[in-house]
Write a structure and sequence with these properties.
Largest interface: A-B, 29 and 29 residues
Number of helices of chain B: 0
Structural class of chain A: mainly beta
Largest sheet of chain B: 6 strands, mixed
Shape of chain B: globular
Oligomer: heterodimer
Helix content of chain A: under 10%
Strand content of chain B: over 45%
Order of helices and strands of chain B: EEEEEEEEEEE
């Protein structure tokens, strides 16, 4: 059982480049989330998807877009990367039908130079 | 929207002592409060959670208390061990439709347990 899988694990981008972070879960969860983790800032919610076909902004959505491709997959896109987007990105999923645990992917360390 | 404040940002204790981490939340409609532990270089993992209809929950050396009136909740670790050293995050989930609301995290507490 793979749980939540993110790709890639590491990425270096130049300012202005674009890229998509991929996330897939095999637990049949309804809700999926994208967070960024920065020192002293905790885990900040970028976007989330309560169910297939819906997406909503979180605390820090500017500069990002998301797609809930199907129930399994939730991608995060940076259209024009900026150094301020250097961070560790985590995808997470929850069953969504009750107050249940969120499972995290292993994270993507992104550096924008 | 929901805002979660966590204190302290760092905590150093001697092995065997207790550690307490506190969080406050702003949305009175929040109804689920999990705590996550993140070891260096790894993903956050749930260690304990509490729902709004419960005031306290224990699991071996870990306990969480919730005060809905004051909108704060705390993590208590007793008899700390070096392997408890990690970053701890609290979180609060506001009640969205079908219980699928946002999960908002605090800023994290780096706990160091000295042997």
């Amino acid at each position: 059982n793979a749980g939540v899988t993110q790709t890639p694990k590491f990425q270096v981008l130049k300012t202005g480049q674009s890229m998509t972070l991929q996330c897939a879960q095999d637990m049949n969860h309804n809700s999926m989330y994208w967070y960024r983790q920065d020192p002293g800032m905790g885990l900040r919610l970028i976007y989330y998807s309560a169910s297939e076909g819906t997406t909503d902004k979180g605390e820090v959505p500017n500069g990002y877009n998301v797609s809930r491709l199907n129930k399994r997959e939730f991608s995060l896109r940076l259209e024009s990367a900026a150094p301020s987007q250097t961070s560790v990105y985590f995808c997470a999923s929850r069953a969504g039908t009750a107050n249940t645990e969120a499972f995290f992917g292993q994270g993507t360390r992104l550096t924008v130079v | 929207g929901e805002n979660v404040e966590q204190h302290p940002s760092t905590l150093s204790v001697q092995e065997g002592d207790s550690a307490v981490i506190k969080c406050t939340y702003s949305d009175s409609a929040s109804n689920y409060f999990p705590w996550y532990k993140q070891e260096l270089g790894k993903r956050p993992q749930l260690i304990i959670d509490i729902r709004s209809n419960v005031g306290e929950k224990k699991d071996q050396r870990i306990a969480v208390t919730l005060n809905k009136t004051a909108k704060h909740f705390s993590l208590h670790i007793t008899e700390t061990q070096p392997e408890d050293s990690a970053v701890y995050f609290c979180a609060a989930k506001s009640k969205g439709s079908s219980n699928t609301g946002k999960l908002i995290f605090g800023q994290g507490t780096t706990l160091q347990v000295k042997p």
